Amino acid sequence: MSTTSRRRRRHRWSLQARLITAVVSFVSVILITVGLGTGTVLESILRENLDAKVTGVQDSIALDYNHRADQILEASPRPERGTLLVVNNLAGPTAAYVDAEGGVRTLDTRNIQISAQDGNDWADATVAGLGDYRLRIGPYSSIFGLPTSEVTSVSARIVTTVALLTTGGLLVLAAVIALLIRSALAPLRSVASTASRVAAQPLAEGAVTITERVPDEDTDTHTEVGQVGHALNTLLDHVETSLAARQRNEERMRAFVADASHELRTPLASIRGYSELSLRGIRHAEASGNTAAGVVADTTRESLERIQAQSLRMTALVEDLLLLARLDEGTELVYSAVDLTRLAVEAVSDARVAGTDHEWVLEVPDEPVIVAGDAGRLHQVAANLLANARVHTPAGTRVTTTVASEDGDAVLRIHDDGPGIDPTVVGDLFERFSRADSSRARQTGGTGLGLSIVKAIVEGHGGRIAVASEPGSTTFEVRMPARPDSPAQ
Ligand SMILES: Nc1ncnc2c1ncn2[C@@H]1O[C@H](COP(=O)(O)OP(=O)(O)OP(=O)(O)O)[C@@H](O)[C@H]1O
Ligand SMILES: [Mg+2]
């Protein structure tokens, strides 16, 4: 996967996350707008109320030219708590206010800081030690005021309440959407899990039946998600039918190869027999000095010898094909307890006789290494691998055969220090009719079925075969469960 697509994938959100984010942000924009609008309107209403109260304060206080602000306030009937009065008369500029208990207190006029003034009548101010005030300017620079603290605290309460309700509402909304989506998408999850369970099945090999289906309740074609489930089930039906057809074809093919090879054995035996017989006749005539037959013999004998050699090769090929077809059917192996150590000793002795130019080394443990298997076929595995090490390497190559018990596996390793196998074909080595070097293979008369037979036998025993090859070192390793619980029949 490239870095860009990985980055893109990381940013892709689930449908649930996207829907929740979209709905919650949309609704929160609406709620915040409504909250802000309501707050602004309420605050302006509260300010208007305050202004009306300040006007009321002005109306209720009777000014005179001789008294100080505090004296005037004392004389007023029931002045509002917080009321601020500044007068500028014969007594000089004086200021006073009504405290929280209703008592009148004097104030230095320098404590009043006007911060904003609208028109000539109204102003906002800060009074040191008392807070923010709304002021009305009356005749002769007199000032009447009330604190804005009530307006501020009411607005703050409204803002807090709206914010809390909005947040709570959004959380509930997100939870409800999540639940809705979860239940709406549940069938999709069941579709996905069905699909991945099917994908985990080994569809490529053998007889496969796909039993997995999306449950009926998730395939309601009235919903979009149900249609997906329904479509997947239809697809799985089709896949199952095609797999069954493929399996039938394969079995028919195998049966055909097995039958054909079987049928070819008899005519091949005849060809071999007759060429043998004719050759024997010619040799006999030659030996008895029949000159006429001797003239015929030069060309005919050569042809007959070729026929015999080729029919022998073909017999071997047909036997290999038959064996492979039967191994594929799984009907070939006959199980018993087989000692790999003994088997290796015998196979290497045979190889030593056949390949006198090679050096044969055997490394086996003292105790037997027992596997449950088909003795004849396992011998064929060792013989094929040893024959390869003999045929495909030059004279003088050292071939080491090792038998060992490793991690509960019985291991047979055949190593040679020959030229190695071309790395480009190592991957296909166990395929049928694969030959790394066709010219050499033809020279050595191999068919290219040897290793595929070895692999089929080993896998028929529940084992594995691996090859590691480089110039100067080629190792074939066969690993089989030492005591398989239930040998494949
Ligand atoms: N030990 C080895 N060293 C080098 N090459 C090898 C060795 N074993 C196998 N090969 C290569 O792998 C090819 C496939 O081997 P395989 O046994 O399947 O076929 P074959 O030996 O050519 O024919 P057959 O075994 O059917 O008579 C061989 O042709 C050979 O090129
Ligand atoms: Mg071979």
From TrEMBL:
Entry GO MF terms: calcium ion binding; phosphorelay sensor kinase activity
Give the record's GO CC terms.
plasma membrane
Which SUPFAM superfamilies does the entry mention? ATPase domain of HSP90 chaperone/DNA topoisomerase II/histidine kinase, Homodimeric domain of signal transducing histidine kinase
Q: Which residues form the Histidine kinase domain?
A: 259-484
CDD domains for this protein: HATPase, HisKA
| Ranges of residues in domain HAMP | 182-244
Keyword check for DNA-binding: no
Catalytic activity as recorded in UniProt: ATP + protein L-histidine = ADP + protein N-phospho-L-histidine
Per its UniProt record, the required cofactor names are: a divalent metal cation
Q: Which domain of life is it from?
A: Bacteria
EC top class, in one word? transferase
Which E.C. number(s) belong to this protein? 2.7.13.3
From the record, give the transmembrane residue ranges.
20-42, 158-181
Q: Which PROSITE patterns match?
A: HAMP (PS50885), HIS_KIN (PS50109)
* Keyword annotations: Kinase, Membrane, Phosphoprotein, Transferase, Transmembrane, Transmembrane helix, Two-component regulatory system
Q: Where in the cell is it found?
A: Cell membrane
Q: Where is the signal peptide?
A: none
- What is the name attached to this protein's record? histidine kinase
